[in-house]
Write a structure and sequence with these properties.
- The model has no long low-confidence stretch (mean pLDDT about 95).
- Helices cover about 85% and strands about 0% of the residues.
- The protein is mainly alpha-helical.
- It is globular, with a radius of gyration of 13 Å.
- The chain is built from four helices and no strands.
- The protein has helices spanning about 5-15, 25-30, 35-55, 55-69.
């Protein structure tokens, strides 16, 4: 796993173990698997659109969002 993905994994685990009100990750985790899966679907769609119709920077951004979710 890349250093970036390892760091992301650590942050998510930390947020799960120690929730914070100001954290998007904590709010998403609190909403449960159904919401997380919905976000994954939304982000996957955005990657497809970016790959087909947008520039590389937008594709990179959307791919990062997908990997996060």
């Amino acid at each position: 796993m890349s250093e970036t993905m390892e760091a992301l994994s650590r942050v998510i685990a930390e947020r799960k173990a120690h929730p914070r009100d100001d954290s998007y990750t904590c709010r998403l985790l609190a909403q449960g698997d159904r919401r997380i899966l919905k976000k994954i679907g939304e982000e996957a769609s955005e990657v497809i659109v970016a790959a087909a119709l947008e520039d590389d920077q937008r594709l990179l951004s959307e791919t990062a969002d997908l990997l996060y979710h």
